[in-house]
Amino acid sequence: VIFHDVDVLTEQLFPIVEAMQRHFSAGSGTYYSDSIFFLSVAMHRIMPKEITRIIQVDLDLKYKANIRDLFEEFDNFKEGAVIGIAREMQPVYRHTFWQYRRENPHTKVGEPPPDGLPGFNSGVLLLNLEAMRQSKLYNQLLEPAVVQKLTEKYHFKGHLGDQDFFTMIGMEHPELFHVLDCTWNRQLCTWWKDHGYSDVFDLYFQCEGEVKIYHGNCNTPIPED
User: Fold this and answer.
1) Which of 64, 127, 137, 178 is most buried, taking the most CB atoms under 10 A from its CB?
2) Those residues with Cβ within 8 angstroms of residue 12's Cβ, 6 or more apart along the chain or in another chain
3) Predicted confidence (pLDDT) at residue 13 exceeds the cutoff of 80
4) How far is residue 178's CA from residue 163's CA, in Å, rounded to a whole number?
5) In sequence order, which ranges of the chain are alpha helices (DSSP H)?
6) Element (H, E) at 125
7) Beta partners for residue 186, in sequence order
């Protein structure tokens, strides 16, 4: 077990993600504005080279399966994929991309699965650090000018840190991602159901299959066994 100093990590992260924080944080001094919430984005730049794969998870999870089985998902990555991540299970990005959707009425951006692009949830992440290091495309997308260009294209202003970045670049380059089954990140938050999206909520929230990891996001209670 290796413990990493948060202050040291943040110091290394900040130059890489500083520009990102303007687009994907709620504002200076707020919870997600801390650079550490962009750790996954640049993990390949700050972890030792001998570490080639990492699973990064939120704390509000309950495991119903062996995490070794999750690690085996790395074997299912297609060529070019660098990150494994599950879809967002609420219409949060239907909301965030509202202006782009209005200007592009036939877009799949923000639409529900299986055919739409609902965005991602970063509660469970498989980071193939070696692939991230070698991917010219992925590293280009970290450049401030490229981030700026994409946020302008999609009229994107988020507040969920790394999740927003992955969602936005996923709209442009879905080939960078291996989409995990919803059962690996069964999100339980229903906030958006009561905030204007009850008519379409279940299209995003449904998840068939035996749950492997419950995610009690937005402080939602996790079912007892």
Assistant:
1) 127
2) 45, 46
3) yes
4) 15
5) 6-24, 43-46, 67-71, 92-96, 98-103, 129-134, 136-140, 144-154, 162-172, 201-205
6) strand 120-128
7) 214
Rounded CA-CA distance 32/24 in Å is 8
Amino acid identity, position 184: W
Task: Render pLDDT for 110-156 as a digit per residue (tens, 0 to 9).
Answer: 999 999 999 999 999 999 999 999 999 999 999 999 999 999 999 99
190 neighbors 205 (Cβ within 8 angstroms): yes
Pull the structure tokens for residue 174. 């879905």
Which residue is it, tokens 């700050």?
46
- In this structure, is residue 205 part of a structural domain? yes
Tell me if 220 is assigned to some domain. no
How far is residue 16's CA from residue 143's CA, in Å, rounded to a whole number?
Answer: 8
Range of the domain at 175: 6-215
Amino acid letter for position 30: T
- Per residue in 41-64, pLDDT (tens digit) is 999 999 999 999 999 999 999 999
Residue 221 domain-assigned (yes or no): no
Q: How many domains does the chain have?
A: 1
Mean pLDDT of 197-205: 98
